[in-house]
């Protein structure tokens, strides 16, 4: 497995398209080539060293079939550069900037980024969060007062017209983020119980959605309305609030606007990167090849 610490080193490691193809083969087919359509290992090889044909289902395929690169005519080297940039920039990268950096159209860059964001979405959680956990809610979206009068929904206060999101952070551990249909107590409690082990100490602010967690967790609250942000060195939500500050700077400074339809993908991208914040840039890229694409690079 090739290792590198900078984007320049990565580009040098893959001087041509064949070297990128060979590298993916080492990851995907380390135990031997198999057909992504039927799983057969009866494979014929073409002289171009890029394409294969299954001896059972008779279908042709390349290393891209069954992966996030499928149906893309873009070179793998450009995909590798896109993976480096999206995993290395704390606040992400816009499709406009990516298009300029790697020399593709904005439409192609948008397609690449959303494929990568989709691959970053967690399909299931491996374990419940434990020890000390912080939970906080926020809203994302345009303010009603900034919209055209015909698009306003009446009330100018609170989260009217915005998307509600919930974040749960294990101190020194994993982050979980999700969009929620609302911030009612039942919705928030269900999400917390699905992600946090019973009996865990959980820190929240005074939002009404968190009332009633005491019966399931050791619940501590800080009252921001009274200027309280930390009490006795334990109850505070500074960690998860920093996450939301980062996410909103990502929207404001990088993307400027994002569709609610794709909100969970943007959250998944940030969460994936945040949970691997202690890794070097090169390590994150290598892990991305190994695990981020794992669901699409397995036998069907």
Explain how this protein is built.
- 36% of the residues lie in helices and 14% in strands.
- The chain starts with 6 loop residues before the first helix and ends in an 8-residue tail after the last helix.
- The chain has 9 helices and 8 strands.
- It has helices spanning 7-13, 17-28, 76-88, 95-102, 106-120, 185-195, 238-255, 263-274, 281-292; strands at residues 43-45, 51-54, 60-62, 132-140, 163-170, 175-180, 201-204, 218-221.
- The protein is elongated.
- It has a 5-stranded mixed beta sheet with strand order 6-5-4-7-8, with helices on both faces. A 3-stranded antiparallel beta sheet has the order 1-2-3, with no helix packed on it.
- Helix 5 (106-120) crosses helix 8.
- The longest helix is centred in the last third of the chain and has 18 residues, at 238-255.
- The protein has 300 residues and is an alpha/beta fold.
Strand percentage, roughly? 5-15%
Count of distinct strands: 8
What's the arrangement of strands in the largest beta sheet?
6-5-4-7-8
End-to-end separation in angstroms reads 25 Å
What Rg, in angstroms, do the CA atoms define? 22 Å
Oligomer: single chain
């Amino acid at each position: 497995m090739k290792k590198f610490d900078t984007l320049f080193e990565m580009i040098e490691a893959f001087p041509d398209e064949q070297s990128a193809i060979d590298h993916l083969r080492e990851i995907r087919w380390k135990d031997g080539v198999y057909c992504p359509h039927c799983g057969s290992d009866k494979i014929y090889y073409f002289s171009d060293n890029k394409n294969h044909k299954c001896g059972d289902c008779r279908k042709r395929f390349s290393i891209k079939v069954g992966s996030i690169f499928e149906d893309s005519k873009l070179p793998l080297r450009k995909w590798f550069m896109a993976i480096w940039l999206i995993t290395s920039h704390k606040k992400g990268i816009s499709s406009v900037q990516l298009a300029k950096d790697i020399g593709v159209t904005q439409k192609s860059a948008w397609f690449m980024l959303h494929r990568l964001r989709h691959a970053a979405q967690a399909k299931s959680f491996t374990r419940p969060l434990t020890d000390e956990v912080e939970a906080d809610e926020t809203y994302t979206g345009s303010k009603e007062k900034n919209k055209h009068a015909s698009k306003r929904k009446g009330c100018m206060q609170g989260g009217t017209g915005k998307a509600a999101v919930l974040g749960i952070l294990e101190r020194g551990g994993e982050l979980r983020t999700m969009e929620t249909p609302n911030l009612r107590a039942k919705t928030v409690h269900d999400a917390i119980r699905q992600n946090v082990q019973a009996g865990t100490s959980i820190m929240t602010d005074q939002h009404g959605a968190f009332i009633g967690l005491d019966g399931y967790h050791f619940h501590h609250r800080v009252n921001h309305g009274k200027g309280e942000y930390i009490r006795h060195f334990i109850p505070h939500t500074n960690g998860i609030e920093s996450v939301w500050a980062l996410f909103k700077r990502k929207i404001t400074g990088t993307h400027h606007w994002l569709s609610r339809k794709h909100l969970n993908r943007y959250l998944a991208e940030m969460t994936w990167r945040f949970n691997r914040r202690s890794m070097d840039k090169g390590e994150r890229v290598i892990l991305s090849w190994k695990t981020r694409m794992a669901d699409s690079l397995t036998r069907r």
